[in-house]
Amino acid sequence: MLCAACDGDLPQVGAACPVCANPSPGGQRCGSCLKRVPQFDASRALFEYRHPVREMVLALKHGQGFALANWFCEKALPLDDLQPDLVVAMPLHPRRLAERGFNPIMLVARELSRRKGWRLDMQGVVRDSDTPHQAGQGLKQRLRNVRGAFRCTTRLDGMHVLLMDDVMTSGATLNELARTVKIAGAAKVTNLVLARAVMSMHGR
Asked: Is 24 within a domain?
């Protein structure tokens, strides 16, 4: 999809906090995660959310580049150290799913799980609340917006669950999803996102 030169110019993730994937000197746990421990245990991002990855993610979300799902999958294939027991793609509320017609991150999760031999959960975690868009809101409001948004319909006792989403900004939505799967018994939760929006002052 991209020539070697363009591929090499993509915004790579440098030294980052192992918990939230925000830039952190020496790859150490950042101050925000030390102060407010997230519900998830680790996070990995394929890229930083900057040009041209930003435009590629938006094209995938708006159905303008389904081939991008396979491209992002290819970029995630080398992550052999993850080894989850179960993969959960960030669920959409039924209303949004009906409007959009597809869940973009599910496209990536399905292909990645197939090629890695991972078990993908398709229906066990549902989104009950059609939460408002989080852009422009502070962390506290973001956390309030998504509180109780998800429901797990199956037990996940002792499992390492990999949560997949397109973009991680404050991490509030992933944090609530992680809380939900841990209530269902998950022992470890790792986030895998296509892109990480760099936050100078960030939370979960």
From this structure: no
Q: At 97, which CATH number? A: 3.40.50
pLDDT (tens digit per residue) in 46-68: 999 999 999 999 999 888 778 99
**b or e along 41-71 (b: 16 or more beta carbons within 10 Å of the residue's beta carbon)?**
bbbbbbbbbeeebbebbebbbeeebeebbee
CA 43 to each of CA 9, 59, 123, 124, 178: distance values in angstroms, whole numbers, following the listed order: 23, 23, 23, 22, 11
Q: Is 4 among the domain residues? A: no
What does the pLDDT read at residue 145? 76
Residue-wise pLDDT tens digits, 148-169: 899 999 999 999 999 999 999 9
Total domains present in the chain:
1
Residue 146 falls within a domain, yes or no? Answer: yes
Q: Does residue 18 lie in a domain region?
A: no
CA torsion through residues 184, 188, 193, 199, sign? positive
Q: Which strands make up the sheet holding 42-48, listed edge to edge?
A: 42-48, 188-196, 160-168, 86-89, 120-121
Q: Give how far Cα 128 sits from Cα of 92, 96, 150, Å.
A: 9, 11, 6
Query: 8 falls in which pLDDT band (50, 70, 90)?
Result: confident
- Can you give the residue range of the structural domain that contains 131? 40-196
